[in-house]
Amino acid sequence: RFGEIDLIGYDGAYLVFFEIKYRKTAQCGTAAEAVTKGKQRTICRVSDYYRLQRGIGEFTPIRYDVIGIDKDEIQWIKNAFDYIR
Q1: CB contact at 8 A, 68 and 77
Q2: What's the pLDDT score for residue 72?
Q3: What 8-state DSSP symbol labels residue 41?
Q4: Closest C-alpha among 76, 66, 61 to residue 34
Q5: At 48, is the secondary structure helix, strand, or coil?
Q6: Coil, helix or strand at residue 63
Q7: Which residues of 4-35 are buried (b: 16+ CB within 10 A; e: fewer)?
Q8: Beta 14-23 vs 73-77: how paired, if at all?
Q9: pTM (2 decimals)?
């Protein structure tokens, strides 16, 4: 009810929360640009809930990545943004 996270997985020791965006054309900007501060805040809030529900401690390193798909090009932006309260 707080929001949703597209994909959750591990990259080495990091628990990674992925936001995946697709754009067929660049008319409204790139896919990665669609991950606004508001969306980032929502992802952070949902990641807190996820970790709380699964007993994942505060010392587990986490990361927020964005996968932008623009037409046929895929861009994986690791550590795309920092935690936002």
Answers
A1: yes
A2: 87
A3: H
A4: 66
A5: helix
A6: strand
A7: ebeeeeeeeeebbbbbbbebeeeeeeebbeeb
A8: unpaired
A9: 0.91
- Long-range pairs for 45-49: beta carbons < 8 A, 24 or more residues apart: 45/2, 45/3, 46/2, 46/3, 46/4, 46/5, 46/17, 47/5, 47/17, 49/2
Q: Which of 3, 8, 1, 11 shows the shortest CA–CA distance to 51?
A: 8
Per residue in 4-56, pLDDT (tens digit) is 999 999 999 999 999 999 998 878 889 999 999 999 999 999 999 999 999 99
Q: Does 1 have pLDDT greater than 90?
A: no
Neighbours of 52 (CB within 10 A): 9
